[in-house]
Write a structure and sequence with these properties.
This protein is mainly alpha-helical. The protein is built from 7 helices and 2 strands, in the order αααααααββ. Helices cover 54% and strands 4% of the residues.
Length: 154
Amino acid sequence: MKKSAVLLPGDVLRDLLEEYQVNPTQLAEDIQMSVSAIRQIVSNKAKISLHIAKRLAKYFNTTVQYWVELQTTFDLAELDKDTELADVIKQIPKAKKPTAKAVAASKTTTTVKRSVAKTAPVEKIIEKKPRKPRTKKVKDQESEGSGESGWEAL
């Protein structure tokens, strides 16, 4: 397997900070993020999310896609290194599209079932009686001494 050089998003950000002579603290203030979040990205311990990509794009006059693709390319390279996942992937079968004949057969079967259901005789329709309103015992401090029952309809 051939190793390819993949840019780490944090390294790219670090290079831009040097090029623009901006430190992580100033960047964090300017794009309204925490300094620790910027330092995590610069040290490649945190990923560049879409929200961060949008802020970095505005600040460094790049595109959001640039930052997203940079992060995605790195993530895919890391994913390729995962041997456990590679073993699982090898075992997954590919989905097969049904043939035109199978699709036509399933539509015919569905149509027959629907037409039978529509023409089947209805033996009896049960009508439900309307419900009576529920009642709840409400304690009324004023009515306690007046002899009222304290039951009210909701």
